[in-house]
Amino acid sequence: MRYRFVVGNWKMHGNRASNRALLEAVVKGIDGLEAVECAVCVPFPYLGEIAGQLAGARLAWGAQNLSEHAQGAFTGEVSAPMLVEFGCRYVIVGHSERRQLFGETDCVVAAKYAAALAQGLKPILCVGETLSQRDAGQTEEVVERQLRVVLDSNGKKSLENAVVAYEPVWAIGTGRTATQEQAQAVHAFLRARVLPETRILYGGSVKPDNAAALFAMPDVDGGLIGGASLVAGDFIAVVQAAARAAQRKG
Ligand code: PGA
Questions:
Q1: What is the DSSP letter of 229?
Q2: Is 203 in the pocket of ligand 1 (CB under 6 A)?
Q3: Which of 64, 72, 107, 128 is the most exposed place for a label (fewest CB within 10 A)?
Q4: Global pTM?
Q5: 4-249: which CATH topology?
Q6: Are 142 and 99 in contact (CB under 8 A)?
Q7: Helix axes 106-118, 139-154, angle to 10 degrees
Q8: Using one digit for the tens of pLDDT, what is the confidence trace for 186-222?
């Protein structure tokens, strides 16, 4: 059985006071929903404080990016060993915003994935096509390449300690979600290329009102949640939907 997983991606949002209140509410709200593993990936400066607040709680935490290097003269970068020091369990790797806005190539993403694994961090590897790639019928080709470059250099077995997230770029922050059939089709395609136990999350405008339908799909194991992870009630409702799906699917 693949354990359900819901991850909040705060992106560049939050402040110390609002983080505290949000996490307090989320920790309370997910109490009793043990069928779903939960985590939040937060901006670097908040990691120390959040590590203190969440110590002993069921909510794990992680970062949204890391350097491919372990240390050195890389001004402005943050390494995997640093994230480990702050109790991170997860780190998002290859998010489309990193690929598109910060020029991360498949090779850089593969190196970051390796850097995370080398320190015992679990990478959440994001793959996904743009709208023009989807319109050109290239969805499978794109996600296959994004996955293959990482697995070619890290080995398929590395997926034992990683999570995959399918995030169609055209659905991120746009309010335009992939239909559950569109998501399922790509998840099934990816499923054939990962390990049987690898969790594949869907991300892209997941909200309380569409989460249940997406999570009901056989190959959707949970979600990577952006906007809705900033509102406690919405994030909790998404976790509740995952818990109900877990009950139904086993
Ligand atoms: P969204 O973001 O839920 O706001 O679309 C998802 C993501 O980018 O991880």
A1: G
A2: yes
A3: 72
A4: 0.97
A5: TIM Barrel (3.20.20)
A6: no
A7: 40
A8: 999 999 999 999 999 999 999 999 999 999 999 999 9
